[in-house]
Amino acid sequence: FQRLKAGLSRTSSHLTGQIAALFTKRKLDEETLQDLEDLLIQADLGVETAMRVTDTLSAERYGKDVTGEDVTRIMAAEITKVLKPVAKPLELDLSHKPHVILVVGVNGTGKTTTIGKLAAKLSGAGLKVMVAAGDTFRAAAIEQLKIWADRTGSEFIGTKLGADAAGLAYEAFKQAQEKKSDILIIDTAGRLQNKTELMAELEKIVRVLGKLDPDAPHTVLQTLDATTGQNALQQVEIFRNVAGVNGLIMTKLDGTARGGILVAISAKHKLPVYFIGVGEGVDDLEPFEAEEFAEAIAG
Ligand code: GDP
Q1: pLDDT tens, position by position, 31-63
Q2: Is 276 helix (H, G, I), strand (E, B) or coil?
Q3: What ipTM, to 2 d.p.?
Q4: Residue 290: its pLDDT value, please?
Q5: Closest ligand 1 atom to Cα of 140
Q6: Is the dihedral of CA 14, 79, 1, 261 positive or negative?
Q7: 60, 187, 214, 243: most buried by Cβ count inside 10 Å?
Q8: Residue from 113, 118, 250 to probe ligand 1 pocket by mutation (most atoms less than 8 Å from CB)
Q9: Residue 187 annotated in ligand binding
Q10: Euclidean distance between CA atoms 284 and 116, whole angstroms
Q11: Quick one: which of 290, 295, 298, 225 has its CA closest to 82?
Q12: Cβ-based neighbours of 174, under 8 Å, separated by 6 or more
């Protein structure tokens, strides 16, 4: 949480500073409310939440003096309302053997690193984990995943560069069944440059996994890079449609200038947010806490 706060405080001190400037010697009027709404939208919170903050503020203090603290208190409360329902612990149904976790997201958003961190948590909890290098397009992604597998004592399955990712996913599922792994985590490619191909590949992975178990993949996690701002909203739309994303992890909240977009995403998609990434190390994956996050954004 300290690292999250340090990262987000860059956003919030910026935002808090602007809010404070907005509310010096001003009574709350239409213009101030409009300026505040613009600020909140610029901070990526989304129009809906921004309006809720200004409506609540207006209902409480219209025509009266307002302090920056009034605003941040109301902001934190409104953001918490949005985030509370999506802040959920990741619960894996272990009656599936293995429980298949598919990890999707745009390249560079932290899929491989997050898989490594997750594998460490799960094997640390005594589960037998296998990871599959389904991003068959990038040698570095395969190598990185192998390093994470070794580091976390997980089984690793890969294939040669350029091989069919769905074929690998199928093979990984079969091997994980044979080896009685509890969890299979499958990495995937995220080349948005070629959207049609990417979609076809992800759809195929989901389809072949379903042949071995109609419920598989049981969990589909999407990683979002906090530093990408507004783009993340569109990324969720794309991957949710193609791969049936049913949970989110936001990475790079240790160094970001923006975390507000998670509020807009949560208001719109209402997908569970399981973890946040707060660094590159194995332990830098923390449960997502609505109130802490809201406070960190609001300042
Ligand atoms: P992928 O292409 O989606 O598999 O992304 P990677 O896992 O390779 O991550 C891309 C880069 O982001 C790497 O340099 C990671 O070390 C870094 N990274 C991933 N998660 C975090 C995080 O939570 N914080 C920071 N600071 N860096 C991260």
Answers
A1: 999 999 999 998 899 999 999 999 999 999 999
A2: strand
A3: 0.99
A4: 96
A5: 8
A6: negative
A7: 187
A8: 113
A9: yes
A10: 10
A11: 290
A12: 212
| Chain mean pLDDT for the chain | 92
Higher pLDDT, 228 or 193: 228
Question: Ligand 1 within 6 A of 278 CB?
Answer: yes
Separation CA 187–CA 136 (nearest Å):
9
Confirm whether residue 80 is marked as ligand binding.
no
pLDDT band at 256 (very low <50, low <70, confident <90, very high): low
Give dist(CA 128, CA 237) in Å, integer: 32
Q: Is 47 annotated as a binding residue?
A: no
Question: Is the CB of residue 188 below 6 angstroms from any atom belonging to ligand 1?
Answer: no
Is residue 143 over pLDDT 80?
yes
Cα dist. 158→126, 138, 184, 254 in Å? 23, 12, 13, 31
CA 71/CA 55 separation, integer angstroms: 11
55 close to ligand 1 (CB < 6 Angstrom): no
For tokens 């996913």, name the residue: 169
Instruction: Quickly list DSSP for 93-160.
Output: -TTSSSEEEEEE--TTSSHHHHHHHHHHHHHHTT--EEEE---TT-HHHHHHHHHHHHHHT-EEE---
At 176, list the tokens: 């994980």
Q: Is 176 in the pocket of ligand 1 (CB under 6 A)?
A: no
Q: Identify the pLDDT of residue 298.
A: 87
The two three-digit tokens of residue 95, written as one number: 């009656």
Percent pLDDT > 90 in the chain is 78
Burial 55-77 (b: 16+ CB within 10 A, else e): eebbeebeeeebebebbbebbbe
Q: 3 falls in which pLDDT band (50, 70, 90)?
A: low
Collapsed DSSP state (helix, strand, coil) of residue 265: helix
Q: Across residues 236-260, what is the average pLDDT?
A: 89
CA distances from 9 to 5, 58, 89, 279, 292 (A): 6, 26, 25, 16, 12
